[in-house]
Amino acid sequence: MKIGNLETAGSVFLAPMAGVTDPPFRRIVQSFGVSAVWTEMISAHGLGVRGEAFATMDLTGHSVPTVFQVYGVDPAVMAEAARVLQGCGAAAVDVNMGCPAKKIVKTGAGAALMQDLPRAARIVAAVRRVLQIPLTVKIRSGWDESTRTAAALARAVEAEGADAITVHARSRSRKHSGPASADVVAEVKEAVTIPVIGNGGIRNVGDARAMIEQTGCDGVMIGQGALGRPWLPAMVLGFFASARGGAKRSKLLIDVIEEHYRYQLEWIDLQTAVRRMRKHLAWYSKGLPGSPEFRRSVFHVEDPNQVLESARGFFGEAVVS
Ligand SMILES: Cc1cc2nc3c(=O)[nH]c(=O)nc-3n(C[C@H](O)[C@H](O)[C@H](O)COP(=O)(O)O)c2cc1C
User: Fold this and answer.
1) In a mutational test of the pocket of ligand 1, which residue from 168, 172, 236, 283 has the highest number of ligand atoms less than 8 Å from its CB?
2) Across the strands, what pairs with 167?
3) Domain spans of the chain?
4) Would the CB of 136 count as within 6 Å of ligand 1?
5) Could you confirm whether 99 is annotated as catalytic?
6) pLDDT tens digits, 299-319
């Protein structure tokens, strides 16, 4: 897929997820295959005004394009942050216009921009001026179920130079769950000529196929479906490429977990790594018999070797599926 001057191998993307799509998770997803990955959202104010460094910007071991996502409200600050991100190896910069968190929307950022099209357009215009790399925007259907501004917003950001748009097919009021309305993705696809990426509720190959068939979108983005199943984007990619199964089905789950754990330990201090891996262990073990007991047994353990020993016992010969 072509996003401005960026050509990706295929059109299946890992969604930005705060607290989840950190470098280790992005690496484990990439180890199976994915067209590009998005970082967690990064504060434009933190980056551009306070000069903060964000650990999530680490691209060690990354093998596919990484799109850095930024959120904020002031066009000049957003532009400065985008300039910094461009200098840090971003393949593209993505502007967040979908975050529903109260502390974000009350500042006018994230999903609040779905209600303030003039400001959204000014942000995109300012960011466009400083970037040589592609600029993308991630939006929702609207602020709530009765205000669907997606198509109008998409037209506005395209006019200011956005190279692609991701549509999360839920309104701000639905947060991250509940039914996704594919028709809003189709509406946006009709409204613009730049590539449109459909997102929301894709949990398997069939969901991805339905999103493309029902909307005509150019690519798909997977979020929660990849929790505990980092091979899902590769499976979808393999299906679309008519390859014989993207992910190797015979791979042992414990091997994936050990690799993920290693990336985590390489990235951050030991205590944080062990704590951050807990939620992933919960996702990896979800649905397996004895999963609650396993979680309880490792959730207070601080030694990664001990955690992995328990995990080896628990996951045994389970394979990715
Ligand atoms: C824990 C979590 C964190 C998220 N963080 C972000 C974020 O930083 N930026 C963003 O644009 N969307 C964020 N999202 C939304 C996802 O990118 C995605 O649009 C949403 O989960 C719908 O896709 P899904 O149904 O495949 O999960 C987050 C979602 C979750 C569940």
Assistant:
1) 168
2) 139, 198
3) 7-240, 253-315
4) no
5) yes
6) 999 999 999 999 999 999 999
CA atoms within 13 A on the CB side of 27: 22
CA distance 283 to 19: 14
Tokens of 50: 């306070």
| CA proximity to 94, closest of 139, 129, 62, 58 | 139
Does pTM top 0.85 for this prediction? yes
Please compute, for residue 78, the number of CA atoms within 13 A of its CA located in the half-sphere on the CB side: 29
Fold exhibited by the domain 7-240 = TIM Barrel (3.20.20)
Enter the tokens of residue 259.
């690799």
* Structural contact between residues 133 and 86, judged by C-beta atoms closer than 8 angstroms: yes
d(CA 138, CA 165) in angstroms, rounded, equals 6
Task: Tell the residue nearest (CA) to atom 2 of ligand 1.
Answer: 17
Per-residue pLDDT reduced to its tens digit, 156-168: 999 999 999 999 9
211 CB-side CA count, 13 A: 31
